[in-house]
Amino acid sequence: MDYEDKAKAVADCLLSYRRDESGWKVCRKSNDVVVSWRPSSEFPGNVYKGEGIVSGSPEKVWECLKPVPNGFRVKWDSNVKRFELLEQIMEDISICRTVTPSAAMGIIAPRDFVDVILVKQYEDGSISSNATNVSHPSCPPQPGYVRGFNHACGCICIPVSGPGWPPSTLCGRLILPFQHG
Question: I need a labelling partner for 99 at 20 to 30 A (CA). Which of 27, 81, 107, 143 fits?
Answer without folding.
Answer: 27
